[in-house]
Specification:
Blueprint (H helix, E strand, L loop, with lengths): L7 H23 L1 H9 L21 H4 L18 H4 L3 H10 L1 H12 L1 E6 L9 E5 H18 L6 E4 L7 H13 L2 E4 L3 H16 L3 E4 L1 H13 L9 E4 L6 H13 L6 E8 L4 E4 L11 E2 L5 E6 L13 E7 L10 E7 L3 E2 L12 E2 L3 E3 L8 E4 L2 E4 H9 L4 E10 L8 E9 L5 H16 L5 E4 L2 H8 L10 E3 L5
Parallel strand pairs: 3-4, 3-5, 5-6, 6-7, 18-21, 19-20
Antiparallel strand pairs: 1-2, 7-8, 9-14, 10-11, 11-12, 12-15, 13-14, 16-17, 18-19
Helix pairs in contact: 1-2, 5-6, 7-8, 9-10, 10-11, 12-13
Bound molecules: zinc ion (ZN).
């Protein structure tokens, strides 16, 4: 059966069956962390039979995975660890051993359960956490990848250049395995740190890819450089972005530059994924300025939307925090994982109006759920400021080419008041005074404060400031406040 044309009822049935099987055969007996947690909460894994039953499980969050002084390797508890003495009494296994021999069964166990690969989180604040994959999981990673490429509407005859940074991060490897499974030529440059901007441009000149894949700011940077050099990329028709948010502003700018480089119709598709899910989801192509939402893969996992305050599960299309549970995973497994990502359109089961697929989609803007409490919310000049809003204002202002926010203390004195300096490289031809005024007005109305100064720079200087080429995560907000 095709994964993307099943009715919601058929998909739910598959999810319920897989969930029950997964909890009974894998999670209940073999997850050290959840075995203990379920015992504490008097939960019998075999009683989890439907997606609704998931509500009986406690959530898992980032904090549960972090090392503690008693458990410096806490993440190991989440790795599925089979108990051979349990396994070998299962009738199916006994039959398999009789039929194919013991060593063949042992070899299969190894393939199913032994971690052979990992990607790690890229937390700005916390230490990275490793998520392992077994050979079984690699198959899921490949399946997810091939399906994302289908969602993008690409064909095997197309070529792609993958500019995600080469690192043990999900984004890079999801793309690599997507290409291998789908069967298209996809060349990985390793990103700016490995090849530099010029190296990436030259690679694109050589490969002549239809699809360019990478982090929005870096893809934008490469296109802008190539555009400035007068390169022609007529074959480019797909831009695939991931790893961070890609506001419409930056998408619009990429497309208009590519069109000046002789490209025809260019479609920008976003992806959403996180290390803990060990796979990603994609948007299908839409006309500029529209979003199709991230197309979920229901046979590989369950996406819930919850109220971040009460933990209550929200209805279809209601906003809330995204919570993920895999359905068929080995290696490192987290259940009901709270992503900390808040989506304002929730998850819809309406067929996609663009591609007709019947899988549920995450729709709307995704921001940090925790932003009201921690992370993105900072006290600045005595006002609580949401950096997501701030970033949106700047990315959606067409005259802004690149930007960086710098927070300082007046006179560099830790006891003095905060000072907010906005550094901007305007687009060519922008009226700088009017731009400054526009930004001040939007800051005032949307976050109720304005920068102390707006400083204008050349594009090159801003790029150096945000370390686009030299670091994995760009420095968009520079906190230069002296520590006491
Ligand atoms: Zn679609």
């Amino acid at each position: 059966m095709k994964w993307d044309r099943l009715t919601p009822a058929e998909q739910r049935r598959t999810q319920n069956e897989k969930l029950h099987h997964y909890f009974t055969e894998v999670i209940g007996p073999f997850s050290p962390y959840y075995k203990k947690l379920f015992a504490e909460h008097k939960i019998d894994a075999r009683h989890i039979k439907t997606v609704d039953d998931l509500r009986r499980l406690p959530f898992t969050s980032k904090a549960d995975l972090l090392p503690t002084s008693e458990q410096p390797e806490k993440f190991r508890e989440f790795i599925i660890t089979p108990d051979i003495s349990v396994l070998k009494h299962r009738p199916r296994i006994v039959a398999e051993a009789l039929l194919r021999g013991r060593s063949a069964v042992e070899r299969r166990f190894e393939r199913e359960y032994r971690p052979i690969f990992l990607t790690a989180t890229t937390g700005r604040s916390a230490a990275p956490v490793a998520f392992t994959y077994t050979d079984y999981d690699m198959r899921n990673l490949r399946t997810a990848g091939a399906r994302i490429i289908q969602v993008f509407g690409a064909t095997t005859k197309m070529r792609g250049v993958n500019m995600f940074p080469y690192a043990p991060h999900l984004a890079f490897w999801q793309v690599v395995f997507a290409g291998l499974e789908f069967g298209m030529l996809l060349v990985s440059s390793g990103g700016g740190k490995v090849m530099g901007t010029e190296g990436n441009i030259n690679l694109i000149e050589k490969i002549k890819p239809e699809a360019i894949v990478g982090i929005p700011t870096f893809v934008y940077h490469v296109i802008r450089e190539a555009h400035a050099q007068g390169r022609k990329w007529p074959q480019v028709c797909k831009i695939v972005l991931g790893g961070e948010k890609s506001p419409q502003g930056i998408r619009r700018k990429m497309v208009s530059m590519l069109q000046e480089m002789d490209a025809g119709e260019v479609r920008v598709c976003g992806t959403y994924g996180f290390t803990e899910a060990r796979l990603a989801w994609g948007e299908c192509p839409t006309p500029p300025g529209e979003w199709s939402g991230y197309h979920l893969l229901t046979d590989l996992g369950i996406m819930e939307v919850i109220d971040p305050e009460t933990g209550e599960v929200k209805g279809e299309g209601e906003p809330g925090e995204l919570v993920y549970t895999p359905l068929d995973a080995r290696g490192t497994v987290v259940l009901r994982y709270r992503t900390g990502d808040y989506v304002d359109g929730g998850v819809t089961w309406e067929p996609c109006p663009y591609c007709g697929r019947t899988v549920p989609r995450i729709v709307g803007k995704i921001g940090r759920a925790s932003s009201t409490k921690e992370l993105q919310l900072e006290k600045l000049k005595g006002t609580l400021v949401n950096f997501d809003t701030l970033q949106q204002i700047l990315d959606d202002t067409a005259e802004v080419g690149e930007w960086q926010l710098e927070i300082r203390k007046v006179h560099d004195d830790p006891h003095d008041v905060d000072e907010l300096i906005l550094h901007i490289a305007p687009e060519n031809g922008a009226d700088v005074e009017r731009l400054k005024e526009k930004i001040r007005t939007r800051f005032q109305t949307e976050i109720e404060m304005t920068p102390n100064r707006i400083e204008i720079h050349s594009l090159g200087d801003i790029l150096k400031r945000i370390k686009l080429e030299s670091s994995l995560k760009e420095v968009r907000v520079l906190d230069a406040r002296p520590r006491e």
